[in-house]
Request: fold
Amino acid sequence: MRITQRAVALTSLQGLNRNLDAVGKLQQQLTSGRLISQPSDSPTGTNRAMQTRFDQAAVAQQQRNIGDAKSWLAQTDSTLREMLDTTRRVRDLTVQGMNTGATSDTSAQALATEVASLREGLLSLANRNISGRPLFGGVTPGTKAYDATGAYVGQAGPPVTRRVSDTETVRVDTTGPDAFGPAGNDLFAVVDRIATDVLANPTALATHLDDLDAVMKTMLTAVADVGSRAARVDREEQVNADRALTLSSQLAETENIDLPNTIMRLQMQQVGYEAALAATAKALSPTLLDYLR
Amino acid sequence: MSTFSSLNAATTALWAQRRALDVTGQNIANVNTEGYSRQRVDLQALGGSVVPAFFSTSNGVGSGVSADEVLRIRDAFLEGRGHTEHANSARLTVENETYELVQQAFREPGDTGLQSLLSEMWSGWEDVANQPQDEAARGQVLKRLETLVGGIHFSQASLGSQWTQSREALDVLVADVNAAAASIADLNKAIQRATQSGLPANDLSDQRDLLVMKLADQVGATVRHQDDGVLDVIVGGMTLVAGSTSATFATAGTYTVDGVTADPPRIVTGAGGYTVRAGGTAEGQLNSLTTIIPSYRNALDATAVNLAASLNAAHAAGFDLNGVAGTPLLGSGSPPITAASLTVLITDPKLIAASSVGPTAGVPALDHGNADAIAQLRKSTTGVDAGYRKMIVELGVQAAVAGRNLDIQSVISTQVDAARESVAGVNIDEEMTNMLSFQHAYSAAGRLITAIDETLDKLINGTGIVGR
Reply:
């Protein structure tokens, strides 16, 4: 076959361009630190990267949801505990009040006043808010779960939940009736009756004490319920943190370069490129002219 | 056979070798000229008279050498192959560039693409679900929605401006093609005249072939050889240059990207307005204008419609802070909804329908069920995220295929170019050897003249002097 200098030059140039292109690509990967800078670099990798980023966004949001759920549950738990302490004091006072032989009118009066003021304290605890919403108010748009008379003004509706994973939600609220007994026979009504009957009808106190015990049982159940939900949220938080780690390492595997590997490849490519340059320089220069006298 | 015929033969030899040396010089001078075809002197022995007759003076020995014709060495089949491969190369280059630009318009995978804007928007809904009473949380989801809509507008607009640029480039290309066609017709005329009057037209032919190769690149032109060295240029079955006359092409079709389906851009003949099936760069540009860019704009439109439909349907299922059922979130100033016209219709954060239950006895519920339900739309397999991801992966596959095709084609084109070059190009070694042989032949012819001169000298001055 006839070969001309220009044909040799053309094919050499193509080979050199190819080599330089490969060097450039590796250099770009090294400087950006990324294996995939546009979808055509690896369509399947792009899909994986996009899916991973998508999951990462969800996991980050769920982390915030979990934080919010924890603060709800912690608030509810501490409020219920404080209220239980107060209720125990009411129970003590009631037992004291039942002991009619030892109670003078004055001390009965004092008992009634203390019970009434404890009831006020219980009411204000039951109306405790978290970022503007009453803890025990259900879905009420107002700021109170119980009004001054002790009537429930919360609104029944769907439970307040937080999304802790793609598939799971955890209930974070406890409605007033769930925590303090059904309307008419709830904590505030019972304590109100005690406050009245310490003076008016001490014999009825025994019944009220039974009612109060029933209410306390309900409250204890609610505390246990909140506790178990908090434990579940804690578990989800752990799972979520693990998932976030897995996802970020997965994204790094898909998108980021393997540094030693890429540097080695760049070195090899550079050696190849230099060899090609040297070979081209040797192949292009000689003609017959060099050997004619 | 005359006494001086050998002198005459030697003279033709001197003349022919000098001509051959001239041509060698021309070849060496143009060793790096683009489109130059090497030339060779066609040396032919001048025979004696071969017609038998009385008193025929020929003794069978020829009377020298003729060097009338200078040939241009070029392989017409390789040239034809070159035209086809150059056209393919040019088309694939344009398509590959288009895909690169489309990919840039979407900026995936990364933290700035539509996917991350979508994810942020869905997260915003979960924040509303966490704090349905908080106007700040409600406000931020509206802002995120506006950012997402802005991102969709941006991508759509950058595809649109890419389309407009390609459309303008097509006009420039066609004007260039018409100018080249006119030049080829002029050159054809000059070549025809030169050939008919027996003058060499090799350099004109080189110029014309260079222009034809340019047309092959631009519109996928092919040639048909005619008498007297004339070439006809044919594009997609239409004759662009016939001998010394050239036709013109023009572009037709819309100049706005939205009119592509109704009036697609195309190349037509200047007279008659018949559609030309062009190849080369023009084919690549037409593919971008009528298929590639519109398909991604349509996909983005579908994404916008899907987003609006799913969000609006989910939003209508809920109730806002006033206990009123949700109104449409997304819409467009002038229906139908497209990626360019998509707007957020709600500006008051109170109107976000986060609650899944209506008011009880006139009191609106502070529920978050609907906000959570909207946030979960992201997981839908027929939803916006899945559809968008699918589109990006398809874009990646198509762009990768286009890039690979271009790689393969550029190898083929380079090989064909090298093959053409190896036939038509100048080899310096060869020219050197030729130069040496012509030089030697020239010296030998000179020596022949000296020899005859000496012989004649002997005959004239050295004979007939016996006894002098």
